[in-house]
Amino acid sequence: MQIELVRHKERIQQLSGLGNEALLELLYELMSRIEFINEACIPFSCWQRAHQLFADIDPNDVPFLAVAIHLNGQLWTGDRRMTDGLLARGYTELVTTRQLLDE
Prior knowledge:
This protein is mainly alpha-helical. The protein is 61% helix and 6% strand.
């Protein structure tokens, strides 16, 4: 997730309208409130399930799904392809960015 935040830093900055320093402060604050999980701690069965559901849609995002399965939580995504693919396979533990914004 840390890599994803850095990878999408410019897009986050564009959407937020924040200056570089304010954005860095926001990212620091955000990351300091997230408990990152070592992927080695995720049971193999969760990896298998995530791979079955998602490997042919976007293999790069399988770790995010594996964590959600492991924690029995919802996967937050703004990726329509991800949402449609998982819903088509019966995985409904999703929340979209649009849903969050609407709330």
